[in-house]
Amino acid sequence: MCKPRKWFAGLTGGLLATMLFLSPPAFAAEDVAEACGYEPIPGENPHYQVTNCLLTETALAYDIPPEIVKAVAHKENGDWAHFQPNGEAIETADGGIGLMQITNYQHYNVERLKADLIYNIQAGVEILDQMFDRRDLPTINDGNRAVIEHWYFAVLAYNGTMPVNSPVIQATGERNTEAYQEKVWDIIEEYHLLPLVRIPFEPDDFRYDPEVRAPIEFVTAHFETERPLTETTYHFLNGDTVYSTTAGLQFRERPTRESRSLGTIGAGEALTVTGSFVYDESNPVRTNHFVWYPVQRSDGTNGFVASSYLTTQGTERPDPVEPPPAPPTAPGEFSDVPAGHWAATAIYQLSERGVIQGYPNGAFGLNDSITRAQAATLLARAEGISFDNRPNPNFRDVPRDHPYYAAIAAAVDEGIFSGVTATSFQPSAPLTRAQMAVLLTRLYSFESGGTSHPFTDVPDGIWYEHAVQTLYANEIVAGITATTYRPSMEVTRGQFAVFMQRVID
Questions:
Q1: d(CA 295, CA 361)
Q2: Which of 153, 206, 368, 383 has CB atoms 3.0–4.6 Å from 137's, for a disulfide?
Q3: What are the Cα distances from residue 305, in Å, to 244, 261, 288, 405?
């Protein structure tokens, strides 16, 4: 369970237990206001970091990852605004009220939803809590509330279980990147700098009629994944040992990017938490959702680290991009790629060229999905493209202190890759078979024409149709079945190595 925050400190043990474990929990708005230094002024929005605090504290009171609540609030109101310049609460044409865009008025006082920011936030958080407990929505793994990805269907339902939010577009089999919950995931990645896992879905998991305004039928009731998912970064306690998840992490003198750097922290470095998290000192700040932890290094130096880059797992999270080039790997070195494996020849040939390498534990990660950043790095490396002195592509999720910023900047500068949006690269998003086809045809020249592809799930004229046709005609890719290509299926590291080697050959 998420830790109780400092505003519980003065409560008795019985009252504290009541607040933390009753459903719905007792909620003390005055305690949240006091903890955040919030003194309501009618019709006026508080400073950005005060709103950050209000969203965070309310989320923790309901045992919801604050990352979820803050991203939902951002999706509803990008500036975390509740009031219009004229002092009236924001209202939309479909009846949404205020910061959390509450449209379900059955259990709420409409005038309070408009006038009382904390009440509005509480209503939104309560709705998310209720969505998580719904029995008609699919579940993921063991349903641990501290795991962000486990909230996928609760976030979907917050906006509505209509076809527009289906995780998969049935007509094409592609992932529905325009769905509400996918946009919320994008916001968490961009503003919390957390690489989330996109759990794969198939069209048969959902059923709906796009011509009828009726809810999605969730055919598959439960999903299991062995991928390492993302726990909330708000549960570290004073005295905990945490670890840096990335190399080159800035160790700050104060809890803000504007403060002096005390040096950089290496990936996997152990740090000791020395107090509760704090909010960014810069005010207002509209570029992040994360908080800061005071930590101490092994040499006794004290400073602050952004919450996004800390974990209690004992080893760093896998970087969203490939590690820097290493000396060529000897054939047979990868523990999960035995001689004779269907991908072994391609993997070891690319390894000998210094293009590809495995994880620090000696495995290659054969069946792991390859991310957009890994693919960009490998393609740039295969072409011998220099990573030096490249212009900043200005992606918010690839800051200059990102450990492999240079590789991504080079791939973008050379036209190999582009962002998902003008400000987002989504380095940790899995690469799909459709994206892979476009990348390979963008980078390498192929003869056009040849046998027409037989894939019924690659519609004529769709953005990846020509690339799939070209690679199929040149015997670079085949279908998953005789008539399906599965464009939205994620590409594994082993598969990508084979495709690359075929193209090079």
A1: 27
A2: 153
A3: 9, 10, 14, 19
